[in-house]
Fold Putative adenylate kinase.
Amino acid sequence: MAQVIFISGTPTVGKTTISEKIADDLNANLIKINDLAIENGFVLGIEEEKGYKVIDIDKLDDKLQEVLNSFSDDELVIVEGHLSHLCSNPDCVIILRAHPKLLKERLASRNYSQAKINENLEAEALGVCAVEAFELHGDKVNEVDVTDLAIDEIADVIKNIISGKNSYPVGNVDFMDWIVENS
C-alpha cells in the first residue's frame, strides 16, 4: 500500500490549504475525506443545533481503505479532513492546531452559528482532535501549532514530519490559557 498521511484538525485550522500545497509540492495524491463521505452517501443526517453533518465513520473508513488499496506502494497519499484521524491504517497523522483566538475570527468569517463556534473553540483549546487521534494511532500522531506560521513554513514542517526528520508528539501544544481567560 502507498504511504498514507492523514492531515486533520478543528475546522478552519488550514487543513485544506496546506494539504493541497503538500500534495502539489510532493506530487502526492489527495483525498478529501468530507467529499468521499458525501459522494458515497455516508451522511446520516444533520445535527440540528450546530448544523454539522453526522457521518457513518465505519462505512467511511471501509471506503477509504478500498480507495487506498488502489494505490501502488511507491505513491504518497494525503488524506485531508476533520474526520481523517478517525479512520484506520495511516503511516502518519498530523493534527494542525491554531490558537482559539485566531480560530474564532476564521469561524465567524465563515458565518458559523455561535453554538458551532463555541463548540469548535472549546474542542481546539482542549485538543480534542489530537487526543482522539492519539487514542487510535498512538505515536504515529504529530501535533503542529500553525498559529504564527506562514503556509510555506507549515509545509516545510509537514514535509520534515513525512520524511522522518522531525516529530511533534501529542502534548506539545497547549491552549488551556484560552479556557482560563474565557471562563
